[in-house]
Amino acid sequence: MPTPEPAAPAVADPSAAGLDLSVLIPVYNEAGNVVPLHRELDETLAGGPLHYELIFVDDGSRDGTAAELAAIQRADPGHVRVAFLRRNCGQTAALSAALDLARGRTLIPMDGDRQNDPADIPRLLAKLDEGYDVVSGWRRRRHDTLITRKIPSRIANRLVARISGVPLHDFGCTMKAYRRRVLEGVRLYGEMHRFIPIFASWQGARVAELEVNHRPRTRGKTKYGLGRTFNVVLDLILIRFFQRYAQRPIHLFGRIGLWSIALSFASFGAMLYFKYVFPWPTGLPLQGKPFVETPLPLLTVMFFLGGVQSILLGVLAEMVMRTYYESQAKTTYLLDEVRQTLSTVPPVDDRAVPVPADGLIAGGGPGGRA
């Protein structure tokens, strides 16, 4: 891989405080695509009223992508920032790096294969200005293969929408528009980037959907396949757990443990019945069953040990959860704002935080706004 020349510093400079828009573009082996993509973005955004930046993250490409990105940054240093990951970390990790570098008030991620159309960016921003916090793209007319891409995607999207309660048609579309406050403090793992609108909706964000143009790939090869659908199902199980039990894992593991112990007692009772009571009350001319002739003793032990382990796992999960929140001073609630009348505020000591003159206290928890 060609060694790229040093690009613009990754450290946010103070003059960028007025940036309106950050476009986030993770790329992997997209030589031949990044140059025309930059040209299209420049044609769409340059000369407009927005102050913007384009953040390309090279996810360990092995073709000429790194050299092309370095050339783009040299040619357009006022708008382009490029980050080079040391190895291929995956799309979600590359997007997370772009989020850490972003400085705009509005964030729009998009794919680097040119299948997302930069001409949709103004439409996404206009929809966002209608009062939404997240606008998700919908590739209604997809230019992908039917068997390996379209059908699995439709099944997965319907399943995700039904389980999450967020009625979107296309969670996999990278092109979305976010207000910065929705993504502040967000950490992405695995392939969770497609579920950001779900997390945002659960935190009270207003989510909308907008049909976007999807173009056929003209260069390079797709990085996605049928196997990705199974990853979506596993991620869905994880986000369902986060939604219902992230703050009370003992309720899940404890319930499983109690049911397992109950089954162990039922197996124990059946074991005693077949040993000492059977064939009563059937009246059949049969003999009772010794313990060793049935699997019930093994089931009794298995269910009992499994139940105890599940309860202990729930206790450990509770300890991890409380350590997570308390070590980072996180709250278990999402405070929007507090309104109060100054005349009713009780006296406070010198250690208290002074109340602003307008009587409005900004939320200090996740999702709080100034």
Please explain how this structure is put together.
This protein is an alpha/beta fold. It has three domains: 14-244, Alpha-Beta Complex (Spore Coat Polysaccharide Biosynthesis Protein SpsA, Chain A); 249-327; 333-370, no CATH class. 41% of the residues lie in helices and 12% in strands. The chain has a seven-stranded mixed sheet with strand order 3-2-1-4-6-5-7, sandwiched between helices. A two-stranded antiparallel ribbon has the order 8-9. The longest helix is centred in the C-terminal third of the chain and has 32 residues, at 296-327. The two termini are 45 Å apart.
Order of helices and strands: EHEHEHEHEHEHHEHHHEE
- Distance from N terminus to C terminus (CA atoms, Å) equals 45 Å
Quaternary state, please?
Answer: single chain
Could you tell me the radius of gyration in angstroms?
A: 28 Å
What is the CATH superfamily of the largest domain?
Answer: Spore Coat Polysaccharide Biosynthesis Protein SpsA, Chain A
Briefly note the CATH topology name of the largest domain: Spore Coat Polysaccharide Biosynthesis Protein SpsA, Chain A
Uncertain regions: pLDDT < 50 for 5+ in a row? 1-16, 355-370
Helix run count: 10
Strand order in the sheet with the most strands: 3-2-1-4-6-5-7
Q: Which secondary-structure class do the elements indicate?
A: alpha/beta
